[in-house]
Amino acid sequence: MYESATEASRAVVAGFFRALRAGDMDALRATFAPDATWILRGGLPASGTWTSPDGIMDGFFPQIFGRLDPDVPVVQDVHRIIADGEYAVAEWTTHARTRDGRRYDSDYAGVFRVVNGQLAAVTEYLDTAYASRVLFGS
After folding, report:
1. Which residues make Cβ contacts (< 8 Å) with residue 138, sequence separation at least 6?
2. Starting at the edge strand that comes first in sequence, how are the strands of the sheet with 103-115 ordered?
3. Strands 103-115, 87-97: pairing kind
4. How many CB atoms lie under 10 A from the CB of residue 107?
């Protein structure tokens, strides 16, 4: 069956969130192209451009997920994925608890670029003031 770029982009982004929710690090790592980038806007300690599956998975993600209580599941409620060609925009809410016991409920939007069935680029947007206060205690 022929799958359009739009359908493929939506499917890859949905697969990323399935792997993230399942904690399947191998599947998650495989969603990223070798030269993938993840950009987090703002002035958080984790803000910047992260490159490659290793840079994203071993550098960026631990800076965020390391702030969260590992005994409490992190849940991403995906509200929608809107796709057009090789781009998809996802909107989701993350629910978690910080290591110091505070609730973390944050809304996100991400622009995902999908090339050859993998994530080539992600730009993530969130309330950085909230994340700074709750996740990073500043």
Report:
1. 132
2. 48-51, 32-40, 118-126, 103-115, 87-97, 75-84
3. antiparallel
4. 14
For the chain (length 138 residues), average pLDDT per consecutive 10?
82 97 94 98 94 97 94 96 97 97 97 98 97 89
Strand duo 103-115 + 48-51: pairing: unpaired
Whether 46 and 67 have beta carbons less than 8 Å apart is answered as: no
Find the helix or strand (DSSP H, E) in which 112 lies.
strand 103-115
Report the predicted TM-score, pTM, of the whole model to 2 decimal places: 0.93
Within a 10 A sphere around the Cβ of 95, how many other Cβ atoms? 14
Q: pLDDT value at position 137?
A: 85
Written as one letter, the residue type at 114 is V
DSSP category for residue 98: B
Residue 138: per-residue pLDDT? 61
- What does the block give as tokens for 50? 């992260």
Which H/E stretch holds residue 120?
A: strand 118-126
In the chain, what are the domain boundaries? 5-134
- Considering the segment(s) 5-134 as one domain, its CATH architecture is Roll (3.10)
Long-range contacts, stretch 22-30, CB < 8 angstroms, 24+ apart: 25/57, 28/57, 29/53, 29/57, 30/118
